[in-house]
Amino acid sequence: MRKCTGRTWHGGRTINCQAPLLADLSFNNIETIEGLDTLVNLEDLSLFNNRIAKIDSLDALVKLQVLSLGNNRIGNLMNIIYLRRFKDLRTLSLAGNPIAAAEDYRMFICAYLPDLVYLDFRRIDDHTKELAEVKHQYSTDELKHQENLMQARLEDEQARREELEEHKAAFVENLNGSFLFDSMYAEDVEGSKLASLPGVAELMETYKDKFVIICLNIFEYGLKQQEKRKAELDTFNERVQEAVQENQAQGRHRTAEFEEKHLLSLSTIRGESELTDIETKIADQREDIAELSNALMTLEMQLVEQLEETINMFERNIVDLVELFIENVQSLMAQCRDLENHHHEKLLEIAINILEKIVKGELDEDLPDDVRALFVDKDTIVNAVGASHDMHLLKIDNREDELVTRVNSWCTHLVDKIHKDEMTRNRRRVKEINQYGDHVQGELDSLECGDILD
Q1: pTM
Q2: 292-346 pLDDT per residue, tens
Q3: Which stretches are annotated as coiled coil (predicted)?
């Protein structure tokens, strides 16, 4: 069995997978289409005379205009539905497949691929398109409706993913609701049992409402702080860009002045006939080259100092923002712990009260067997309430630690990258200056005195 992998080409030829516009995989005994994900710019694909029974795995070919699938084993007209996603498809060949013998073959394809221009090497006339549209109108309308619903769902999912990424960038994802609260009880078996005790439901409802409000406060605060960090970074980037551009303009001006003088000097040297004058002018020109290199290096050192000051100021500001963010989040998380502690005290009070009623035989409510098993003695119920409490505190602590770790890591990585980028820029600029100096010096050195005198 052969597979279309993007590297198995007709006649043993290999097509560059980087950005081909046409690919011919005819006569390869291919049974499965796959491995074409890198051919995003492909416009014309031929899979003629293979063993393909299903049209799929072409999603990456968003620019596809011409598709040849003649002489294969495609027998289900529903394969045509898959091709509706290729908005630029204008030419399709399916002759020699079992579906081509279907009575409704041409009408079906014209109805479901209304933008197609050529089918099996024949132009589709307007009359055929009109007949196909009328014949399959109900089916195509229903399909369009389903496609619109699917597109709307995809757009909603994309919007949710983008929103989640924004929340992650602010380090407050899943804090805009009851997610943290719910997660505290998701694995808390004892807590779930205790929640069914008389009087606990109302206590839980009040606790959850207050807890979620604090989470929402963290969430809203996190988004606002993210905007401040982003504004600080944007301002920093603007200052760096302005400083670099101004420095580059000064460097270009100095270089342009030098080049004008340099070309004139080279011309003058070539026109000199006296060796002494030639040597003098060459020496003068070497001094000009050295002077230019020094001037450009001085400009670069001034820029380095300016950018170092800008970077240090940004680093102080961004660190201050992050530290303030962490401090306030920790304060809000402390409120969550205070709520949990208060809830724990109230829950323990209720549990002890129920235990006393059970011992005295005064409990009117029936408890499930697994809940009643917690009330065999005081130690058992106290341990159960305490275990639930500890698990809740651990969830709060873990979420706080995760937030603090991530924002600190982000800050460290950002500052390190800025310093590294500046070092790379400086090294590249110094190299450019040295290379330019070597280049003009080489032009000067090529003026051999003997050749000039000749």
Answers
A1: 0.72
A2: 999 999 999 999 999 999 999 999 999 999 999 999 999 999 999 999 999 999 9
A3: 147-174, 275-324
